[in-house]
Each structure stands twice: as C-alpha cells, then as structure tokens.
Specification:
Zinc carboxypeptidase A 1; 17% strand; Alpha-Beta Plaits; 36% helix; 417 residues; signal; 8-stranded mixed beta sheet; 2 domains; CARBOXYPEPT_ZN_1; alpha/beta; Aminopeptidase; globular
C-alpha cells in the first residue's frame, strides 16, 4: 500500500489527550462542530482518514474508516475547519455536511428526561440500576440480582436473572460494551421489561422457557463518562499512560487477540489494550459468562448500521455452524423488517462490516462453543448513527424483540436448546 505524507495533521497523542473532554470535569460541548459524510473511494483517501483517526486533534469519527467503497462520518472541530477544507480539496474527499452543529444533535438525544423510568428518553446508569432494584422487589420469585463483573473505577457490572422455572436453557443478553451506543442499553432494558410484563403469547413463551441473564451496561465507567463528560467516548476508562485512557472493550477478549481490525496506539478508539483481558471489565465479565450453566444463546447489542452479525471477526472463513446461523439470521432479519420496515443485513463480522478481532462474540463462540451467537448493530444506517433520537428507542426495541423471538424459535427447531 502506498504511503502518504500529510502536512498539518497532528501525529502526537498529546494533542488528542489534551482535548477539553479529557482535562475538564464539566460536560464537553460540541457547539458548531460539523459532521461530514465522506465516501472513501481511493487508497490515498483511506490512508488519510486512518491517519487522522489514529492521531487526531479536533477530529472524531462516528464510524470507522476501515475499507474502500464505504461511507463514514467525521466530526470536525471549528478550529480545524480550515485545515479540513484543505484536506477536502487536496484529496478530493467530496465531503458533504451531514449536520452543521453536533451539539444540537446531542441536545436532541438528551430531551425527554423524566422522573419515572421509561423509554421516551435515554437512561443514566443510576437510573438503570435503580430500576433493576425495583424489578427485584416487584418480582421476587422470578427476578434475582447478578453482578457480572466490575469496572476499573470500582463500579459493579450489574444485571438480573429472569427465571420462571428450573432447567431452562440460558440466554445471555448484554448492551453498551461501547459506551456511546446508548440505544443498546435502552433496547436491552425494554426487552427485559417485555419479558416480565408483555401478555403476547410469543413473548411469554420465550420469557418462561429460557433463563435470561441480562446486563444492560457492560462498560459502566465509559457509559457514565458519556453522560457526565464526553458524549462521544467509546472505550473503558483505565489509564494507559500519562496521556491516554481506556481500551476498546470489544477488541480486548482472549480469542484471536490482535488478529486484525485493532490499533496498538493507546489513544485510538480501537486500541485493543496491552494484552488480552487487560481490562477488568472484559476479564470479570468473561468469568461470569463462563459460569452460566446451560448457556445456549448469546446476544450482544451495538449501534449502528442495521446489521445482524455472527462470528467471526478475524476471518471471513465460515465457522462450524455458519449456514445454520445464516439461515436463522436471515429469518430474523425478515422479521425485523415487518413491523417498521427496517432493513438489516446478515453475515459474519468480517464479511459485512470489517475485520475486528478480540470481540466478546468471537470469544463466546470460539472459547465456550455457545451455539447461537449473534451481535446486533441497531438503528440506523448512517443518518444519526449512535446519536439516535430518543423517539426511535421504542420502535428499535420492538422490532429487535421480534427478531430475538425468531432466533430462539428457529434455534429450538434446529435442536440447539
């Protein structure tokens, strides 16, 4: 691959680490930060964007620049507008303005806060944990607390087990391993609520005939940080060096670690960590998942892109039950489309999004041999990305639950439970 030299791009993590988001306790604002939509059409453009991603100062990607012939969104700070204009012209980026003011988009996400827990607004970690306590009190014969791990800053990775009777096959469902993907936590809590309150017969069937282990927020430190300090934060909050914080908790699992789609630069959003399970969140969560008896299904929720993915992320080679999972996933995607018209693509991670090694999905399949393993990239396909407006929470969760029912029913028909 040809190399390029880019004048004006800061190549030191110092500038990235000294952004207001990392040195101030107050919530970072993004007034007049523009969001650009870019189509990557040449190797030179891809190299430029990857260089900006790894050594950014005033730039943040809302979707990763990984492959040619893909579309990404890039946040440009006001003080970088002139520099980015030069890049746009010099490298023929043909950048289109998607949003003039990122802060206005974030403010829209924060609307609708209510004193009572619900799904017309996004929920803080404190809101979610308080609600879990309420469920434990309301359904003492069905709901029990679980602690699925702990965080660098000392928080518990909390969840609940829902079990109506003994001997059920187990389903583990988790969200928000990437901190900024708020729709995943909201979707997981909505599905959990439906398992306890819905009178729909198909929902009651899966609720009562499986044991559900539900963890809405797998990265609590990062999730809190997105609510208090930097909305765009993705990683954990462990200190890597004097300047850089966090590792990508979905690149840190001990299965095909650093076999592609990761960064070794500590300030990068896709930094895999110095070693497998270097992050206490992934290490303790994996230990908990390993302890679950009769685990037949693992469901992992991300945003965005409207993808239903199966292992593996390090290779496009089919896994042992690739064709069965593709059949199940295709039927689940068809069901996803019925209610609100959302179109999802189905395939393994490396096929339909990009190479990404060291993920939780790959570890659960590759290490535990869990038969039904699916990862969702929830709404949307690029307009808002993980900054999805709150009015889309319930429709997203409704169609997702429809597809989960199909995954379990089809898996049962194939003898996986």
């Amino acid at each position: 691959m040809a190399s390029i030299s880019v004048v004006g791009v800061s190549v030191c993590c110092l500038l990235a680490a000294l952004s207001p988001a990392l040195v101030q306790a107050e919530m970072a604002r993004y007034d007049n930060y523009r969001v650009y939509k870019l189509n990557i059409e040449s190797v030179e453009q891809l190299q430029l964007l990857q260089l900006i991603e790894h050594h950014s100062d005033g730039y943040t990607f809302l979707s990763d620049p990984v492959n040619l012939n893909t579309t990404v969104k890039l946040v440009v700070a006001p003080h970088k507008a002139a520099e980015f204009g030069e890049f746009n012209q010099r490298f023929s980026l043909n950048a289109e303005v998607a949003f003039e003011n990122l802060q206005a988009l974030i403010d829209r996400q924060l609307r609708g806060r209510r004193e009572t827990f619900g799904w017309t607004a996004y929920q803080t970690l404190e809101d979610i944990y308080t609600w879990l306590d309420t469920l434990i009190e309301q359904y003492p014969d069905v709901v029990s607390p679980i602690v699925a791990g702990e965080s660098y800053e000392g928080r518990e990775i909390r969840g609940v087990k829902v079990s109506y009777k003994q001997g059920n096959p187990a389903v583990f469902m988790e969200g928000t391993i990437h901190a900024r993907e708020w729709i995943s936590a909201a979707t997981v809590t909505w599905i959990l609520n439906a398992l306890l309150t819905s009178e729909d017969l198909t929902v009651r069937n899966i609720a009562e005939n499986y044991d559900w282990y539900v963890v809405p927020v797998a990265n609590p430190d990062g999730y809190v940080y997105t609510h208090t300090t930097t909305r765009l934060w993705r990683k954990t909050r462990s200190r890597q060096n004097v300047l850089c914080y966090g590792a990508d908790p979905n690149r840190n699992w001990d299965y095909k670690f650093n076999q592609g789609g990761t960064s070794t630069i500590p300030c990068s959003d896709t930094f895999s960590g110095p070693s497998p399970f270097s992050e206490i969140e992934t290490r303790t969560l994996s230990e908990y998942i390993r302890s679950i008896p009769n685990l037949s299904t693992y469901l992992d929720f991300h945003a965005s892109g409207q993808l239903l993915m199966i292992p593996y992320g390090h290779t496009r080679e089919p896994l042992d039950n690739y064709y069965e999972l593709m059949e199940i996933g295709t039927k689940a995607a068809a069901k996803l489309q019925e209610r609100h018209g959302s179109i999802y693509k189905v395939g393994n991670i490396a096929e339909i999004i990009y190479v990404a090694s060291g993920s939780s999905l790959d570890w659960v399949k590759g290490t535990l041999q869990t038969p039904l393993t699916f990862a969702y990239e929830l709404r949307d396909t690029g307009e808002y990305g993980f900054l999805l407006p709150p009015e889309q929470i319930i429709p997203t969760a409704e169609e997702t639950l429809d597809s989960v029912i199909v995954i379990l029913e089809e898996g049962k028909a194939m003898g996986y439970h």
